[in-house]
Design goal:
Elements: H1 13-19, E1 24-26, E2 31-34, H2 37-45, E3 49-51, H3 54-65, H4 70-76, H5 85-120, E4 126-128, H6 130-146, H7 168-182, H8 188-221, E5 245-249, E6 253-255, E7 258-260, E8 265-268, H9 282-285, H10 295-310, E9 316-323, E10 333-340
Helix pairs in contact: 3-4, 4-7, 5-6, 5-10, 6-8
Length: about 350
């Protein structure tokens, strides 16, 4: 078996997925890996398999390098995706209530940006769907959801705190960016609100942006030469920026006939769940207790993107795409250039 480290970036990865039955040990990752839908479902629902507590990762880094990672840990305390048990339930409940209160305004800002950007490029012979359309729209949405713009992150991606390959300097840069955003907020209630909003950007901004770029490229590549108004656009976002999730065994458990020892990690290629009893969106938003909080928002954002592009009179042909550099966690295009005809 070849490298698993960047398997999620390979265009033919689904052929590899089809060969992975049950769970396979990877010396490269020091983890079990699986693209077997039944094994993935079992692992995601097994109480012995938990999300990785990155707070302990940053506590270890703080001790080893004498760096104050408290701002990062404070945000991680508010990321439901990275918590287990009762803390997960409490944070998820608070974030669900907050999302309900701002979703309408966030989608309105997103829609306004889509309209403005398409109008600005109406007469262009070529433009970038990633940087000229998807990024500004997601930026506008998360300006409402999080209270700050994506460029306020100091040139970093806050979501990268979950990237196991992230270097120390980039971790420090993200930590410093978070510290700037919470600086001066001393009232505990106000700080709770700021940390909640930052956490939504951590889990949502890059995953939505990447999913939009991957979905647009997939649809356009599968309909070459067809006007946007005549494309059979899928009702739900068809591709994800997060093709896999990493988990850890809290205690020894057997999944799909394989014994996973306590402390061993598991990489699950969840995009292999594109079909089956959990529905077509399971591979995009997950299943079980940690299903994506922003599922409704993401589906609606895709539908609004489709509606905006359907109103465009032309045909878009992808001429170039580049993945975002130095990113081993997300599938997100840094460039998605299209020719307009």
């Amino acid at each position: 078996m070849g490298s698993f480290d960047l398997l999620h970036r390979q265009s033919d990865r689904r052929a590899t997925y089809a060969t992975l039955q049950g769970l396979t040990w990877s010396d490269e990752l020091s983890a079990w890996v699986s693209a077997d839908p039944e094994a993935i479902r079992a692992a995601l629902r097994a109480p012995e398999i938990e999300v990785i507590d990155f707070r302990s990762v940053y506590a270890t880094l703080s001790e080893r390098f004498s760096i104050d990672f408290r701002p990062t840990v404070q945000v991680l305390d508010h990321v439901a995706l990275g918590l287990n048990g009762q803390p997960h339930h409490e944070v998820r409940r608070r974030q669900t209530l907050y999302l309900k209160s701002v979703t309408e305004a966030a989608l309105a800002a997103y829609g306004d940006s889509l309209a403005a950007q398409l109008a600005a490029h109406a007469d262009s012979g070529s433009f970038c769907l990633a940087r000229d359309l998807a990024f500004p729209a997601v930026d506008a949405m998360f300006g409402v959801l999080s209270g700050f713009r994506l460029d306020d992150r100091g040139g970093t991606s806050f979501s990268s705190i979950f990237d196991r390959r992230l270097g120390l300097n980039r971790r420090k840069a993200i930590n410093e960016g978070i510290a700037r955003l919470i600086a001066g907020t001393e009232d505990p209630v106000a700080l709770e609100g700021v940390l909640t909003r930052i956490s939504l950007s951590v889990v949502g901004a890059d995953s939505l942006y990447g999913s939009l770029t991957q979905s647009l490229r997939q649809v356009l590549d599968s309909h070459p030469g067809r006007p946007l108004a005549r494309i059979d656009w899928p009702a739900e976002i068809p591709a994800t920026a997060v093709p896999y999730v990493d988990r850890i065994a809290r205690q020894t458990v057997t999944i799909a006939g394989t014994r996973i020892a306590a402390g061993e990690r598991v990489r699950l290629y969840v995009e292999a769940l594109k079909s089956g009893p959990d529905g077509p969106s399971a591979g995009l938003f997950g299943i079980g207790a940690h299903v994506c909080l922003g599922k409704h928002l993401s589906i609606k954002a895709w539908q609004m993107m489709v509606a905006a592009l359907r109103s465009h009179p032309g045909t878009l042909t992808v001429t170039e795409h580049r993945f975002r550099p130095n990113d081993y966690l997300f599938n997100a295009d840094d460039a998605l250039i299209v020719a307009v005809s």
